[in-house]
Amino acid sequence: MNLRRFSLIGVPYLWLVLFFLAPFLIVLKISLSDYAVSIPPYTPTLDVFGGWASISDFFSKLDFDTFKFLTTDDLYWKAYLSSLQIAVVATLITLSVGFPIAYGMARAPEEWRATLMMLVILPFWTSFLIRVYSWMGILGKEGFLNGALLWLGIIDDPLTILNTNVAVYIGIVYTYLPFMILPIYATLDKLDVSLLEAAEDLGCTRTSAFWLVTAPMSRPGIIAGCFLVFIPALGEFVIPSLLGGSGTLMIGKVLWEEFSSNRDWPVASAVAIILLLILIIPIILFQKNQERQAEADQ
Amino acid sequence: MKMTWLPMAAALAAVAGATTAEEVRVYNWSDYIDEELLTKFEEETGIDLIYDVFDSNELLETKMLAGGSGYDVVVPSGTFLQRQIEAGAFQPLDPAKLPNLGNMWDVIEERTEQYDPDNAYSVNYMWGTTGIGYNIGMVQEALGEDAPLNSWSLVFDPANMEKLADCGVYFLDAPAEMIPAALLYIGEDPDSHDPDVIAKAEEVYAAVRPYIRKFHSSEYINALANGEICVAVGWSGDVFQAQYAASEAENGHEIDYSIPVEGAQMWFDQMAIPVDAPNPDAAHVFINFIMDAQNSAAATNYVWYASGNEAAQEFIDAEILEYPAVYPDAETLGKLFTTTPYDAGVQRVVTRLWTRIKSGT
């Protein structure tokens, strides 16, 4: 019995330690190291077989210089802010596109739902990279979109969309849309329709019934969807580097540059740690708030 | 259970054969070889070849410095090679396993010694210049018949760039080459390591930045070829590939490349063997295969980059050998410059400057 209980609790913790804590500690360790021309390109490296002397020597060489360095250059906070802005705006757009789709799916006749669900999931059968590349073909100056608009006579000169932030938004919204639709659909699907009927019987219009009943009850789905879109969008690297222009400033690109152009792994790791803090602190605060509300409700 | 020995022995032999079958993993620049050579290598040597590509020295260096890349042959350029040798990323070549070493061209070897003393760790694959690729028709339409096609002023003079902006200009996303070019244009030492001098490159770029559509190191081949852009600061052979692609497509775009009269950077891509290469012997076989005069010539005939192989010249198309934009004449050669690696502090200044140039931040 005890063993069963232990393994029930142990498995998720083991998962966390292996795939979150251990990599995090490695990154943290590198962020406290110094740049060096060597393999790997930082110093000190831990020699666990060297006895206590070498281990204490190792710890004495770690310092917070890289974090201090991040404050000396405005590039970093500007990149964090610009990433936050892009992620927030993209999440809101995804929500406003995804919610009606999820709503429509949940209200569709029973026999259609499986097909509609399939259509949402279908794009995943093609590689993410290929789908982003296809957008380059669609949005380019000689791409399909400009071709169609020119042919229809809506515009006279091709629009410059590719290599701008607009293309980045399109890429993020398109890529992450299913992550928004699916959790919202899951909550809407479970929504008891008789509650809406009751609301209407009690004098609600359809719109106010939506805002008073449907919206609050789909909140868990909306929150889950927003997290699923916001978190990966914040650190996104592929979409801004393929669709974005040189003016697109995102922390993923800054990270890449620190690693590859500067070969400064310690600074790159420090940038990554701060990104993690930006993500984790609001999530923890949010979770705390949710718990408090749940208690208050009881 | 009954079992005859014969099939079992055969099965064992097959297993043993499978595990000892040699393979070699090569990591080279994109669009940089005649793919028929890869098949030829496998047929001649019986070694399985796994051929991957990259498009920036920075990407290669990240893999080299992380270690355990799994590659047997990689092709870094001069200054990157030098720093990676210093970091201990490569093993010395074994001349006994490279009988074709005698084919190499001393003129190039003398220059590559600057990065790799005695050429102990590397052999030249190709060399070339960083200059200007352009679409003749589109540029002349924008700037008139007397457009300065053979000068850095084409891309660094805001007056020209303003007119070219509409037809599209790409720059390489390679600070180690773009900053020296800008310094050369304003008459500074292109190989300067002085942060104050390097900072002057920013003013050059600030003036033309609004007219640059993109910084990218490989997309310009296609973009030039299909008329998406009219000018690209790029690598010689890449522009010739765009030229070839455009003529094959018969799309009416005529592409050419110039080494600017002010001078240009000369670079060398060197084949080297990582210190932790799983199959160093097969790596030597591959390098020796490429150093074969005919093979080396086949690669040059395909990609239009100059070869560091002197014996190959006999087999290289006269068209290429006599084309001064590929094999510069003595006068042009005198104007080409090389650079030395930045140390960590200067490198940071350069990267930061480059980020500011690209993103305005």
Summarize the structure.
Chain A has 298 residues and is an all-alpha fold. Chain A has one domain (67-297): MetI-like fold (Orthogonal Bundle), CATH 1.10.3720. Chain A has helices at residues 2-31, 51-60, 65-72, 74-107, 110-121, 128-139, 144-152, 165-190, 193-201, 206-217, 219-234, 238-243, 251-260, 265-297, and strands spanning 34-35, 42-43.
Describe this protein's structure.
The complex is a heterodimer of chains A (298) and B (361). Chain A is built from 14 helices and two strands, in the order αββααααααααααααα. With 298 residues, chain A is an all-alpha fold. Chain A has one domain: Orthogonal Bundle (MetI-like fold), CATH 1.10.3720.10. Chain A has a two-stranded antiparallel sheet. In chain A, strand 1 and strand 2 form a beta hairpin. Chain A starts with a helix and ends with a helix. The mean pLDDT of chain A is 89. Chain B is an alpha/beta fold and 361 residues long. Chain B has helices at 5-20, 35-45, 57-66, 78-86, 106-112, 136-143, 153-156, 158-164, 175-185, 195-208, 220-225, 236-249, 280-291, 293-303, 318-321, 330-335, 344-359; strands at 23-29, 48-54, 73-74, 122-135, 169-171, 214-215, 231-235, 255-258, 264-272, 306-307, 336-337. In chain B, helix 10 packs parallel to helix 17 (344-359). The longest helix of chain B is centred in the N-terminal third of the chain and has 16 residues, at 5-20.
- Which regions of chain B are unreliable across 5 or more consecutive residues at pLDDT < 50? 1-19
Overall mean pLDDT of chain B stands at: 90
Number of distinct beta strands of chain A: 2
CATH superfamily of chain A: MetI-like
Instruction: Tell me the radius of gyration of chain A.
Output: 24 Å
Helix content of chain B: 40-55%
CATH topology of chain A: MetI-like fold
Give me the CATH architecture of chain A, please.
Orthogonal Bundle
Radius of gyration of chain B: 22 Å
Based on CA inertia axes, which overall geometry of chain B fits? globular
How much is the average pLDDT of chain A? 89
Class per helix and strand makeup of chain B: alpha/beta
Q: What does the largest sheet of chain B look like?
A: 8 strands, mixed
- Note the total helix count of chain B: 17
The strands making up the biggest β-sheet of chain A line up spatially as 1-2
The largest sheet of chain A, given as strand count, sense and whether it forms a barrel, is: 2 strands, antiparallel
Topology pattern of chain A, helix = H, strand = E = HEEHHHHHHHHHHHHH
> Tell me, what is the CATH class of chain A?
Mainly Alpha
Largest interface in this structure: A-B, 28 and 36 residues
| Strands of chain B, count | 11
